UniProtKB/TrEMBL annotation:
InterPro entries: HAD-like_sf, HAD-SF_hydro_IA, HAD_sf. This is Haloacid dehalogenase. It holds the Pfam family Hydrolase. PANTHER family: ALPHA-D-GLUCOSE 1-PHOSPHATE PHOSPHATASE (PTHR43611), FLAVIN MONONUCLEOTIDE HYDROLASE 1, CHLOROPLATIC (PTHR43611:SF3). Signal peptide: none annotated.
Length: 219
């Protein structure tokens, strides 16, 4: 556990040092892991112009968001293949080769997670991630074993920045919003959490996150 600090001869409690933060809640995509549809499709489409068209028109982040929100993968894929005939194999690749859209970890954040865990800070996550794809990803990611609980949008059929997913998370995690720091790369998600009373960090990179955590007395 974090030991009390001494400032000016006064013993400061852990709550004084951290502003009352007792748990840290991470987003997953683009905070812990990189995510880019083009990381997969650049392997499958040689023509740069066609690649740009495909990733902005057919298999897009906006379309992918439907699975995050709880829509079944098979229904999405079948509908998309009917809408864009002649692209069946490429559309199927989204479902069967999804892990190739995750090139690796975001540099530096896994180390931060481990350091927070070493300081006995409870760790949680709220992620916009479809249920089927989440199960595939989660099975191969041992870092997530350090998290006490993870709220997955596809399971709950609630997505950030909807206030209800943050309210659900607070109930599940067992801490009031004022006792949790929420970290996300999406400004709308950060604003939604802040409006509900969470401490927030708008993620840009691990160096700035580390500096913020140190300033808060969490690292």
């Amino acid at each position: 556990m974090m030991a009390p600090a001494i400032r000016g001869g006064l013993v400061m409690s852990a709550d004084d040092e951290t502003g009352g933060i007792k748990a840290v809640v991470f987003d997953v995509g683009r905070v812990l892991i990189q995510w880019d549809l083009r990381a997969l499709y650049a392997k499958l489409i040689d023509d740069a112009g066609h690649l740009d068209w495909f990733c902005s028109t057919v298999v897009t982040e906006e379309w992918h968001f439907q699975h995050d929100a709880g829509r079944a993968l098979a229904d999405m894929v079948a509908e998309r293949k009917a809408e864009f005939p002649g692209h069946d194999e490429l559309i199927d690749a989204y479902a069967v080769r999804f892990l190739e859209t995750i090139p690796g970890a975001v540099p530096g954040t896994y180390e931060i997670v481990r350091e927070l865990n070493d300081r006995d800070l409870p760790l949680f996550a709220i992620t916009n991630f479809g249920s089927e794809l989440w199960r595939e990803f989660r099975a191969g990611e041992p870092l997530l074993d350090l998290f006490g609980d993870i709220v997955v949008s596809g399971d709950e059929k609630l997505v950030k920045p909807d206030a209800r997913i943050f309210e659900l998370a607070a109930r599940r995690f067992g801490y009031p919003p004022q006792a949790m720091l929420f970290i996300d790369d999406n400004a709308a998600n950060v604003a939604a959490a802040a409006a509900l009373g969470w401490h927030v960090h708008h993620f840009a990179d691990a160096a700035r996150l580390r500096a913020d955590l140190e300033a808060r007395g969490l690292l």
